[in-house]
Structures are given as C-alpha cells and as structure tokens.
Design brief:
Shape: globular
C-alpha cells in the first residue's frame, strides 16, 4: 500500500508543477483550453473562465493545454508570455518544498517567522544547490540515476505511514523536478526558455524548435527506458541476493 501512496505523492508533485504553469499562463492572459488533474479518459469537467477543468481517470500528475490550433499559432504568441508560462512550473516546484518544510518545522518547533518562512526557504535553496552540484557526477555515472520504478521502490520504504516522511519525500522529489526541468534540454522547461530567448535575439532560431524538441523527446524517452531497466535490475538483484 505504501508504494501506491508514494506513486500518488509523485503524481501530486507533478500536478503542483502543472498548476504553476496554469497560474503563470493565466497571469499573462494566455488562453488555456484544458487543465486536467490526471490523464486518460475524462471523468468530470467544468468550464470556468474560458478553461475546461477536468478530472481524468489516471490520478498521476496532470497537464495544461493552451488554446491554440497548431504550433504556428503557439509561436505567434509573444515570447515573453511563453517564457513566463515555462517558468511557472519550476517556480511552483520550488514553492512546494518550502510549504512542506514550513509544515515540518512548525509542527516540530512551533509557529514563528523563522519556522514558517526563513528556515524552509533556506533549506529548500540549500538542497537544490546540492542537487545542482551533484549533477556532473550523476550524469557521468548514469548507473546512479533512478526512474519512477526506483523512486517508488525506495520511497515506499522511506515513507511508510509516516506523514512527516511523506512531506520530506515530496519536498525532495519536487526539488529534483525543479532542477531537472531547468536543464537546457529542449523538451524541458529550461530548454524551452533557452530557445524562446534565442528566438528573441533572432527570429531565425524559431526553426530550431521542432527538430531540437524531437531530439529532446528521443533523448528523454531513451533515458527513461534506460533508468527503468536499471531500476528493475537492481530490484531483481536485491531479491536474488
């Protein structure tokens, strides 16, 4: 049961990230057609403010769908609006750990400005810095990477039924998601922001979006398959030994 709980926590982290994109898009008046909680077939929906809010069958994460007909219409949107929307996700993914640490410190040490805001922000910033510093080692030692299978397996053992552990787990996963999404890989938010910025410098860079996005997807899918196989191999070896 703890593994299912951990999978739902990961889904919540992804959903919070997507909420950040939604708020940023609404903030710059970018039209949003659909905001879905979960994936797959629609279970329930309600239209409000020009956006259809959905509850979908698979409760893992969610997505934001701009109200556009094709990629040409999307690229016709002002670069500034696209950059702000892309930044909304990573910003939300940083805010979530601050909220988690705020709850943890407030429960353990009482309500105060330091416990609610100062220490949580400092803690989240410190952990994110450590993740960034460790990136070169992880990227040059791909065997150290973990995918969803490995995260759920390790997270289930760590979280158990302890809510404070669950909050720490959410904070760590969200900070890892923040750093991951800011990497300059076209399919990720960081890559999108980089390409949008280059487009601002010269319109000809617009031609790079589609081929680099395809290359980014191929890279990320290949990486996910690799880490999933590594995770399954580790779990199998642990059971055999």
């Amino acid at each position: 049961m703890s593994y299912i709980f951990v999978a739902l926590l990961i889904g919540f982290v992804i959903l919070f990230h997507e909420i950040g994109h939604l708020i940023a898009a609404k903030g710059v008046q970018m039209p949003i057609s659909i905001f879905s909680i979960g994936f797959g077939p629609k279970l329930f929906s309600k239209k409000w403010g020009g956006t259809e809010y959905r509850l979908s069958l698979i409760p893992l994460g969610g997505y934001v769908l701009p109200e556009i007909e094709d990629q040409n219409e999307y690229f016709a949107l002002p670069v500034k609006k696209r950059i702000i929307m892309a930044l909304g996700g990573p910003i939300a993914s940083f805010i979530l750990p601050v909220i988690c640490f705020s709850v943890i410190y407030s429960l353990n040490s009482g309500l105060s400005f330091a416990n609610v805001l100062q220490i949580p922000i400092t803690q989240a910033t410190k952990i994110m810095y450590e993740i960034v510093v460790s990136l070169p080692y992880v990227l040059t030692n791909p065997g150290q990477l973990s995918g969803i299978v490995g995260i759920v397996a390790q997270g289930g053992n760590f979280v158990g039924t302890n809510w404070l552990n669950a909050l720490q787990f959410v904070a760590l996963i969200s900070l890892n998601l923040t750093v991951l999404n800011l990497l300059p890989i076209p399919v990720l938010d960081g890559g999108k922001i980089l390409l949008f910025s280059l487009e601002k410098i010269h319109p000809k860079f617009l031609r790079l979006h589609v081929p680099l996005a395809i290359a980014g997807w191929v890279f990320m899918i290949g990486l996910m398959l690799y880490v999933t196989l590594v995770d399954i191999g580790k779990i199998f070896l642990e059971k055999v030994i």
